[in-house]
Each structure stands twice: as structure tokens, then as C-alpha cells.
Amino acid sequence: MNSAVVDVIIPAFNERESVGKVLGDIDKNLVREIIVVDNQSTDDTGINAMAAGATVLKEPKRGYGSACLKGITYVKSKPIPPDIVVFLDSDYSDHPEEMIHVIAPIVNNDYDMVIGSRALGNRERGSMTPQQLFGNLLATRLLKIIYRARFTDLGPFRAIKWKSLIALGMQDQTYGWTVEMQVKAAKQKLKCTEVPVSYRRRIGISKVSGTVKGTVLAGYKIITTIFKYA
User: Fold this and answer.
1) Position 213 pLDDT exceeds 90
2) Among residues 29, 77, 112, 149, which is most buried (max CB within 10 A)?
């Protein structure tokens, strides 16, 4: 898989200020196509993403998982499937230029899935709220206890073999998307690893950790998803 075909899926909701920066930092020699899924934005997110060279899809049903599933459905329709799919956020908190390090374990060592771990990498002060840090710690501890899965983060920046992704049968349409992927990967005994990634303060206010409601709902969904598949 030395010349792996890589497609990128980026869910986006009202990220007009940041989506162009994210796309600008992706190494275009590394990827075949960048798919931005506009999750019913009320601003120019879709227009800005298209101007920056992305394929833009519209997903009217709000939800992080809904947007990711839309991207997967689109990729399924391609005559030649990718070898690897990369997911990352559109708020510019991730460092897209580190994608080469995220896919490297798949390309070089035949891993099935790689999580970009913010816990292992350089994290800008204030880039994650205390509730995010606590939630990640609790969730990864539960994953270890229940599924014997050794993760340090539920980070959104991740890469997975296309065949492995399809075999997972992803379903969650909201906040449980990332942890569902890790739970199912553990249950299917996929070969998984983590690499350190950098993380910075996002552009704009988070729709999840930036509100009390979003934080509570996300935390509840993550915990219930972990126990759902036990």
C-alpha cells in the first residue's frame, strides 16, 4: 500500500472562517479527494470549501455522525474505492499537515485504524476544556475495562482502511460517532494504534464543548454508546 489511495471526509457546520484554512493545509499530493459535508450550515461554509477545491456534499440532517455517513455513502459510489479514509474536523483545531503521520502506520505497518491522539501530542493551552479532558479520560478507561482496548483519546483526526471502515457498519448519527468506531474496532479485533498529533484552539465556538447542553448530551451519548455494544 505504498501508493495508497486516500480520501478525506470533513464534516462541517458553520465553519466559514476555518474550513478554507483546513483545506489549504492538506497535502494535495497525499490525497485523491477531499470531501466536505456541509451539515446544513447557515453561512458560507460550503461556498468557501468549494472555492478551496473540495467536493462539497449537503447533509440536511444535523449531526456529526450524519455528516460522516453522508461522506461514506458518497465514497461508496466511486468506481475505484480508496485504500484509506481520513476523518478530521473543519474548525482548524487539528493540524492537517500531520496527516502523513496519521496514515503512516497503515501504509507502512498494515494497521487497520489509527487514532490521532491529542493526549500524546502537543496540545495548546486551553484547546480542550476541562470537561473534554475528563470525558476523554473516563471514556478511554471504560474502553480499556470493558473491551481491553488501549486508547488515550477519542480524537476526531483518524485514518482507517476503507475495507475495515465498511466492515464496522457505522450507524451513530450524532456525538457517539468516534467512540462507536473505536468500540466496534475493538470488538472486531482490528489492528489499531495511535500517533501523537498537535491540537490548537479552534476558530469560533464549539457546538459541543462550547455549550452546557452540548457538553451534557455529548457526554451522555459517548457513555451510553460504550455500554451499548458491551
Assistant:
1) no
2) 112
| H/E segment holding residue 216 | helix 212-228
Domains of the chain, by residue range, sit at 6-228
In the predicted structure, residue 209 carries a pLDDT above the cut 60:
no
CA distance 113 to 162: 10
- Amino acid 185: pLDDT: 98
- What residues have CB less than 8 Å from 52, skipping those under 6 apart? 19, 20, 23, 24
CA dist., res. 155 & res. 87, Å (int) = 10
**CATH number for the segment(s) 6-228:** 3.90.550.10
In angstroms, the CA 119 to CA 15 distance is 25
User: Strand 55-58's sheet: what is its strand order?
Assistant: 55-58, 33-38, 6-12, 84-87, 158-161, 113-117, 192-196
Q: What is the pLDDT of residues 86-111, one digit of tens each?
A: 999 999 999 999 999 999 999 999 99
